[in-house]
Design brief:
The chain has 31 helices and 33 strands. With about 950 residues, it is α/β, with parallel strands linked by helices. The strands form 9 sheets. The chain has a 7-stranded mixed β-sheet, covered by helices on one side. A 6-stranded parallel β-sheet has the order 30-31-29-28-32-33. A 5-stranded parallel β-sheet has the order 18-17-16-19-20, sandwiched between helices. The N and C termini lie far apart (about 60 Å).
């Protein structure tokens, strides 16, 4: 059979079984066959082939795009004749291909001798922004040789006409409301983790957004209000909390946005989303990628009494009252000039935060990528011409306060800022471009990142990036048909692009399924680094890390840059002493609880940097805190360490990087060796005193300061999804933190120790508990299943070498075998210990899950509805989160322990210890704030 016949068979299957349209074409071989059928005017498939060529071929750097661009060039030059595709239409099609081979073709035509071709080619090139060095070098060389067309194109670029000639955004945008959910809406609702395998197939993945019923309701609203955009709302909550999901925004745009190009299927942009408490930071960045709008509605406010005091309910939570209704079907108007939301003539709320100059640029350009590339292109053109680039884009917002020191994040941003005009240090609120040091891509969003790289015509990693890693952790649990189809293809693409990859496309080294956050934490060797990673838990304990959508990851890989405001910070310090029976995980949860209590229920962490003065806790252990800050709704977190601890953490990172080298994971660019060199330089700087550890100035300004009292933590603390709360908006919020005594013999159906929230010490704790129980009772019996998944192979190898793996394996009813991996997800569990392959496992919920309706106690991070455990018809699934010793004991007992039982079980075990630093971890302000270094 021909490739075309195979494609037609696939089309028939998609339509019959899934009700879908033909899958967009990315294969050069298939498109070549289609082109041959177009050339044959008698071919029975010619009409369909024309439609596939014009409307169903993916642009950018896909192999199909290369073939399409070449054929269009032949048509323009008169070497091929297709009646339906004139020379003018061929140029139009090239203008929608975004970059890569299309730019190469346009440059060939524009820089040629035939003015009848070069002139229209130049006109198209003036509208393009996705040019890379190979393209700009050609223009530069041609200009220097006196080519008039090259000069004309450069002059257009220097004026940024590709942006200025675009239409302004509409002054009035009518919207019709749709309540997508009550309370915080996680990106799991918009793009479920268990459907991660289909994300690169946008039409198919769109079918999983919310529910089929919701999709139908959105469609009906569009029919009823054809001139209004459907605005998806998180009522009484925040939109887009949790995981970073470009796929979530893609799905919203697919159902409620507009098509980006008539010649590119299922790529929609410009959705409108809103939340009572606004949009989660990571999700808002993703909305910017599509040129969408994210509104903070503030439609529920705290009720106050006659004295102006907040009214609280019996639980001490603020009582909310409705300021105005956004019930489904309500017609509203966004005035983008006045930056107000109206209902008719009634002003409802100021929405100016959604229409900053930078965000308006994203909307006008069709997304943030075009703005980033446009700025780089304008700068290049002006430099080449030797002229000053006019101020076209909104200037970087540069805020500097006299006599005010810098927070840690302000120092990091000042160090990595690019293109800053100000001579004075920048403070929070400034909006700048920054160099990105480390980039991470994970395997369920990776296929989309690869698509984004192809779409923006990128072919290799930016030399500005110090290191980048492609993980295999999110699909580690089950090597099923979906993983076998997606992961090797992803690894081959990313390896060729220049990343260190978990799986070797050549099969030389053992495939690694290490959790991405742990690997990124290891390859981050500078506490002043900026890290971008394709997961919300990209929260390093060295440097500052931002979880990001697949598109922002792609942009960072391609350009080595990112653009964002410098966030405000909240300082977290500690006092008192940890009780011997407490684990550091209890400190993490208590921080959330004490913060909410200190600020009357207001989450001061939301959207800000948590600067935690952790002092002497090593990076592996401190990661437990920074990781959880995603659930605190913080934008990111920074650990402030003392000299000795930071040096030890970097030395540990060096040893882990060396292991990667020894396993054969180094690439041609010698990225890993380069990281070890950077680590040595950083250690030398600390030891010499020339470059001390990152620390804020002693008069830095914070949004708030939280003091955590360790003496108040007397019991293991549990984060509870509160699934039966009568107020649905208060379920699954990560804000309900309770002591273990609250649960008083509550049955436990399954325990899970794993994901990125644990480190080697947690597995040593399990081993010690098993030995203690064995010594006390002769053997260990589990009354509930216990699933254990180490985050990295390094931990497994070290436990084996030190003897702790032996006791784990002794009581394991299942132990992973890389030579014979599972090919199907487990649906039933026995009351045994399962030693699973390193990786995310139950925390992801895309492969393995607990049984529906189970009560799970886990070290995981996720309280999302249906993530770790789905509801059953009889009972809601619960995923309660706690420390490793609590999880282990609960599965042995089959219930939550009493505090007395817990204390007895951990007696003599060295839990993760923490003591507040004895010295102030700050830099003395001497009258002038001094950034670490300004680029």
């Amino acid at each position: 059979m021909s490739l075309y016949s195979d494609y037609m068979a696939e089309i028939a299957t998609r339509k019959a079984e899934l009700g879908l349209n033909p899958k967009p074409i990315d294969s050069a071989d298939l498109l070549s066959e289609i082109i041959e059928q177009i050339k044959d005017t008698t071919n029975e498939h010619r009409e369909d082939s024309l439609k596939f060529f014009i409307y169903n071929t993916l642009p950018g750097t896909t192999s199909a795009a290369g073939v399409k661009a070449k054929f269009l060039k032949e048509i323009i030059l008169g070497q091929q004749t297709v009646a339906e595709i004139s020379s003018e239409f061929a140029f139009e099609l090239l203008s929608h291909m975004k970059g890569g081979p299309s730019i190469e073709v346009l440059l060939d035509l524009a820089l040629g001798d035939d003015e009848s071709v070069s002139r229209p080619a130049a006109d198209v090139l003036k509208t393009q922004v996705f040019l890379y060095e190979a393209d700009t070098d050609r223009l530069s060389v041609a200009f220097k040789k006196g080519n008039a067309i090259a000069k004309e194109i450069l002059e257009s670029y220097a004026q940024a006409e590709f942006y200025t000639k675009l239409p302004d955004i509409d002054e009035k945008i009518d919207v019709v409301t749709y309540i997508a959910g009550e309370g915080d809406i996680s990106t799991d609702l918009l793009s479920p983790g268990n459907q991660a395998h289909s994300r690169a197939d946008r039409e198919l993945h769109g079918k999983c957004m919310i529910t089929p019923e919701a999709q139908q309701e959105i469609t009906e609203l569009q029919k009823q209000h054809p001139n209004a955009k459907v605005m998806l709302i998180a009522e009484k909550g925040t939109m887009g909390v949790g995981s970073s999901r470009m796929s979530g925004v893609n799905n919203v745009a697919l159902w409620a946005g507009k098509q980006a190009s008539p010649y590119v299927p299922f790529v929609n942009i410009a959705p409108v989303v809103a939340g009572t408490n606004g949009i989660a930071p990571i999700f808002l960045t993703t909305v910017d990628v599509t040129g969408g709008i994210g509104l903070d509605l503030k439609n529920w406010v705290k009720k106050v009494d006659a004295n102006g005091n907040t009214v609280t309910d019996e639980n001490g939570d603020p009582v909310l009252e409705e300021a105005y209704s956004v019930a489904t079907g309500t017609l509203l108007t966004i005035d983008t000039k006045a930056k107000k939301l109206y209902k008719g003539d009634e002003e409802l709320v100021d929405v100016s935060s959604a229409f900053t100059p930078q965000k308006v640029e994203f909307m006008k350009a069709g997304g943030s990528y075009a703005v980033v590339f446009g700025k780089k292109l304008q700068t290049f053109a002006a430099y080449t011409l030797g002229v000053e680039a006019p101020q076209v884009y909104a200037p970087s917002k540069e805020i500097s306060h006299a006599d005010q020191g810098l927070t840690a994040v302000e120092k990091i941003f000042n160090r990595n800022a690019v293109g800053v005009a100000s001579d004075t240090p920048l403070h929070a609120g400034s909006n700048v471009r920054v160099k990105v040091n480390i980039v991470g891509s994970q395997d369920t969003t990776g296929p989309m990142t690869a698509q984004e790289l192809e779409a923006m015509a990128a072919s290799t990693i930016s030399p500005m990036v110090d290191g980048a890693y492609q993980s295999g952790c999110h699909t580690a649990s089950v090597w099923d048909a979906k993983a076998q189809a997606n992961i090797p293809k992803l690894m081959a693409f990313m390896n060729k692009f220049g990343l260190i990859t978990a799986r070797d496309p050549k099969g030389v080294y053992h495939s690694m399924t290490d959790v991405i956050h742990k690997v990124l934490n290891d390859i981050t060797v500078d506490d002043r680094a900026i890290i971008i990673g394709g997961d919300s838990h990209t929260r390093m304990s060295k440097g500052v890390a931002f979880g990001a959508d697949s598109g922002t990851v792609a942009l960072a890989l391609a350009t080595g840059e990112s653009a964002m405001p410098i966030p405000e910070s909240v300082k977290v310090t500690f006092k008192g002493n940890m009780a011997k029976h407490m684990d550091f995980r209890d400190v993490v949860h208590a921080t959330q609880a004490q913060m909410l209590k200190q600020f009357g229920g207001e989450n001061v962490f939301q959207g800000r940097i948590i600067e935690v003065h952790i002092g002497t806790l090593m990076a592996d252990q401190a990661f437990t805190f920074t990781d959880w800050t995603a659930e605190m709704k913080a934008k990111a977190s920074i650990c402030i360490s003392n000299d000795e601890t930071l040096i030890k953490s970097i030395e540990l990172a060096k040893s882990r990087i060396q292991i990667m080298i020894d396993k054969g994971m180094e690439n041609e660019a010698k990225t890993l060796h380069g990281l070890i060199k950077l680590a040595d330089e950083r250690i030398a700087g600390i030891k010499s005193g020339e470059q001390p550890p990152l620390a804020p100035d002693d008069n830095a300004k914070y949004y708030a300061e939280v003091l955590v009292d360790l003496d108040q933590i007397a019991e293991p603390m549990i984060a509870d999804p509160d699934v039966n709360n009568e107020d649905v908006s208060k379920r699954y919020t990560h804000d309900v933190i309770r002591p273990v005594s609250y649960y008083n013999d509550k049955p436990v159906d399954l325990g899970f120790v794993g994901s990125c929230m644990v480190h080697k010490g947690d597995f040593q704790i399990i081993a010690k508990m098993l030995r203690n129980l064995e010594q006390q009772n002769g053997s260990v019996t589990f009354n509930a299943p216990l699933v254990v998944a180490a985050p990295t192979y390094n931990i497994v190898d070290e436990l084996k070498a030190e003897g702790d793996w032996e006791i784990l394996a002794k009581y394991a009813g299942f132990e992973f075998d890389d030579a014979n991996p599972k090919t199907a997800a487990r649906t039933k569990y026995e009351n045994i210990l399962y030693l699973e392959r390193p990786g995310c496992n139950l925390c992801m919920g895309n492969q393995e899950k607990a049984e529906p309706g189970d009560t799970v106690i886990a070290t995981s991070t996720r309280l999302f509805q249906g993530r770790v455990v789905a509801d059953s018809s009889e009972k809601k699934g619960e995923s309660l989160l706690g420390s490793t010793p609590l999880v282990v004991l609960s599965t042995v007992l089959g219930r939550f322990p009493s505090i007395e039982e817990y204390k007895a079980a951990v007696e003599g075990i060295d839990l993760t210890r923490f003591a507040p630093p004895t010295e102030e971890l700050t830099t003395k302000y001497t009258g002038q704030a001094v950034p670490v270094k300004v680029i």
